[in-house]
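In this supplementary section we document a worked example of the pipeline. Step one takes a protein sequence of length 384 as its only input; no multiple sequence alignment statistics are reported here. Step two produces a three-dimensional model, which step three serialises into structure tokens for compact storage. The input and output of this example are shown verbatim.
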Amino acid sequence: ARFGHSFSRVAALTVTASSDETNGGTTDQPDTTGGDLYLSLDDVRRHSVDARLNLRDPGGRAVATVGAALEGEDENSQSQGSFGGYPFTSAFAAYRASRAGYAQLLWTGVPRLTMVAGARVDDNQQFGAFGTYRAGANYRASTGTRLRASVGNAFSEPTFYENFSTGYVTGNPSLRPEHAASWEAAVEQDILDRRLTLGVTLFSQQFRDLIDYTGGTTACGFSYCNVARARASGIEYQATAAVSPALSASFGFTHLDTRVLTAGFDTTSGGLYHLGQPLIRRPATSWNAAVASRLGGRGTLDARFTYVGSRADRDFRSYPALDVTLPSYLRVDLGGTLTLAAWPAAGDAVFTLHVENLTNAAYQSVFNFRSPGRTILTGIRFTM
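The serialised model returned by step three reads:
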């Protein structure tokens, strides 16, 4: 639910409330006779309220936002299975609540320059208080050059299972969130009377307090601990072109380099964080291309090509898990719209078509889990 009210031309309040519940679980049958088994039932509920006040400069040069948020989530989980020939059961019910306050300033006081800065403090009853921030600037030169830079940080909460599980794996209620700090800098240039735009972006991320499981007698033995550090950095190249008034195209290429800086606990082939090794499921190269066209004013047609290079993963069917490489793949998606009729009283009826994985390519984003094959989605959209 969402409520909004404008007190004046310079002040507006927005309140958003949401609630959702998910009932599900996992059925992981043995791959071989007498192999490992895992079954679970999970009930997860989340409730949140967010209130924010926007204050606008009468001169239109700045917008300040202040707000507060409350969130509660609880989970009831039951699981059973066997690992290495030893049966186990687990059951827990847990609740976490958090509150947050935040502020942001968007400033356009200098021609062609936009700047933004914001900060937020989250206070979670399980993890304590954590502060995050972000800042960025965008400059548009009269020559068609655009410069962009940003910096910020974020955190990711442990799962309920990592915090509260019982049985074969014991949760660690003292876990801290995983943290990430990042920056990026980009330049774009319009050429050929703005029909072609070329751009390049440099980016870097630093991860710390990454969570890993240890089966040894360390300070948090037979549980999860914050231990590993890693980085991810790279470069992106982009190009967009207006080929004609009815046809446009784009292309992007990314080179990514990831490395583990502080190792995790598991030194076997199944470990997720091996010193100096890349992070799993992160391709070193990837690219995408798209073509979009308008069909005589009554429809559109677009095609997107996505290439993902080979990347490291783990085969968890054995213990310890085996180091494997996921092969590269190319996926093609196709979409289009067609206006069927124009009704003066009711608006237009538009037929929509979207085909995902047009060539029915067989690929895996996670080892041993097949991604969907060709999927066709159709519908009719009415504008009233």
